[in-house]
DNA sequence: CATGAATGAGGATTCATTCAT
DNA sequence: CATGAATGAATCCTCATTCAT
């Protein structure tokens, strides 16, 4: 699974051959097929795992902050790390957006949708709780959660210029601002007081 | 190009063969290679065309509204139509997100990024103008434009549940709300007064 | 051996995997290789067993009849049962005619030929005895025995139409007629007197 | 088709690879798949062709003889040549008896059965005509035709010992005798007078 | 006596691309 | 301007067999 995750992230699904995967994993091709029913099966396994881990991290990050605005910042941050992490950590597979792997089983039966949906629900849960607590003011929680999560895909590297004028730190800040705005949380005053700075990772992010 | 666009949208890039394309177009394979350097070349041509058309529609939609908040609503609407349109209109190719076509030439050389970037710049231009006119209040225009456009991908159908609880109309409204919030435009009072309703398409969208 | 016999008869030799066999037998693959040198080795064992049993049954059936014409009828009947039995009894493997298993070791090294030959010799023995007893009149005993036994393969089911116009009973009768004719035994008069009827199985054969 | 026919006859169906076939034919593998849907498809094509040719030869041989007993001898002779011919002429494929190729589509869907049946019908037609003409005396024409044709498979080489005591000439003679007997044609006196000798091929058959 | 994880050569099939006509 | 026969490298997957436990 590790070999597959890295290779898929590097070369893409269809350019990665079973030979690549098994050679990298140091096992025979036959062994691969004792653990996965097909190349696609590996992707599904990877997606499920990544999805579970990602959702857990998002929940944990939100729970770790006591203040409702801070919860939103934390979620943005976790997403940033996830989408930025690339092959190094397991989450990279989310970058395989629908269409590529869906082929064999008709239009988009991939696990991505399910995974996507799962995260959206986690975020929806947070927003609902915040609204119930009187901390957020959101008209349409479900729709907002979907938009929220989709927007955060802006972090995935290959979507941005290599020599991008928008640095990671700026993007994180803007995303936090956007999310707070959507949640009806006062953003301007508070965030300039230091919150975003706190949330911005000190490693791997340029100022 | 029409044949390719439809087929790619239906079956995905890698599952569509040159035979499929030329058979559908009613021409020989040799002829294909007189107009496109490769299968990938067709994708690039399609992307460029779609990108140009999409950008033009976005610009036109924004220009058609005199009020700055309305411009934002209009852009959201155009994106909704674009991402929702599927195979029927040329824009569908944007749904082929990076990774699938990038294969041959190393990590992500696809034209998608460029196209994506192009649209982001168009939106960035609008935001800049709005800020300059004193209508929008945005800290980081570039980052916000990127987030803005990325969020709108929430419209693409295969990302949502088939039996999705979030209807198109709700999603459009929430997106308009989100965007207005990010632009510092008063959204709550005004939009509930009727603005989003105006923008909501009367055909193909359920209430 | 039972698992192999059934599976070979059902799915054919090459489509049956060692996994199938050992799973069906409820043992490990390792254990298989302690009893048989190879997959092919199982076939040989099966063939030898079936051949021995078949030959024994043929001999016994012939011995059980005192009259020379009746011996011929009895042999035909045993062959009918054998070739018709399918997977249920061990003889089915004979249906794997040469070519399929011969592969690995050059043209036709299969045990089938030997088995075939064995039966031919048994039949040849009967014919010789009959000729010596003055009961049969056959010019070329060896050749006739070979033809005799080969002809009886007409019983194997998959060689006949599913909705075959030729019923089992008719085929048995015709075979007995043919064999008697080849042995120079008066067939018309005698058989109509009841002999073939006696031999026809009362179960599993339609009139 | 020629390459396939020869290789299948030599090495068997499953041991013959597409590489073998295309290399022998001097074409690329891709080209193969423009003419045949699969490896199995080649077999079907071969069988149909062989079946047609064989049936034509059998009919022609029967028609060439004016006397009814001679027609039977001629058919036997054609079958002898066919089953003996091996890879050299196209008919060899009949030796691929059911079971080997049938795999993918459930028990025995191969074209062999149909081909077999076709020949049986040709022979049945001859017997019927002979009976109608008062030349043959056969109780059950269909069953006899089936037995007749099946018996003639005794000619196929790999069914016989390499150092076979039964020579080709003897086998042909015995087969003619058998067939005549089954058709109620006086065989003993006449055939020993010289008829079989006439029919025995002068080339490729040992005395 | 028994297991089953591990192997890896080998096979059928696909498909973007070329080029003689 | 157009064809489509021909290519062949590359891919996913299978399965008989081994051997450490």
TrEMBL record, chains A, B, C, D:
Residues 1-54 form the HTH tetR-type domain. Pfam families: TetR_N (PF00440). The keyword DNA-binding applies. Keywords: DNA-binding. Gene3D superfamilies: Homeodomain-like (1.10.10.60), Tetracycline Repressor, domain 2 (1.10.357.10). InterPro entries: DNA-bd_HTH_TetR-type_CS, Homeodomain-like_sf, HTH-type_TetR-like_transc_reg, HTH_TetR, Tet_transcr_reg_TetR-rel_C_sf. Residues 17-36 bind DNA. The keyword DNA-binding applies. This is TetR/AcrR family transcriptional regulator. It comes from Frankia umida.
């Amino acid at each position: 699974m590790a070999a597959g995750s890295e290779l898929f992230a590097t070369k893409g699904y269809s350019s990665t051959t079973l030979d690549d995967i098994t050679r990298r994993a140091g096992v025979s091709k036959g062994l691969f097929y004792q653990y996965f029913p097909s190349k696609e099966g590996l992707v599904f396994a990877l997606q499920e795992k990544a999805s579970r881990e990602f959702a857990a991290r998002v929940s944990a990050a939100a729970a770790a902050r006591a203040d409702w605005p801070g919860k939103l910042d934390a979620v943005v941050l976790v997403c940033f790390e996830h989408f930025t992490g690339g092959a190094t950590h397991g989450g990279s597979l989310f970058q395989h957006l629908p269409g590529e792997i869906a082929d064999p089983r008709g239009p988009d039966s991939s696990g991505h949708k399910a995974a996507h949906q799962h995260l959206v629900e986690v975020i929806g849960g947070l927003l609902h709780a915040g609204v119930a607590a009187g901390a957020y003011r959101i008209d349409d929680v479900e729709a907002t959660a979907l938009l929220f999560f989709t927007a955060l895909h802006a972090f995935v590297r290959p979507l941005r210029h290599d020599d991008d004028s928008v640095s990671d730190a700026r993007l994180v800040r803007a995303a936090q601002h956007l999310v707070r705005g959507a949640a009806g949380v006062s953003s301007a005053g508070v965030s300039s007081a230091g919150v975003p700075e706190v949330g911005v990772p000190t490693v791997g992010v340029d100022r």
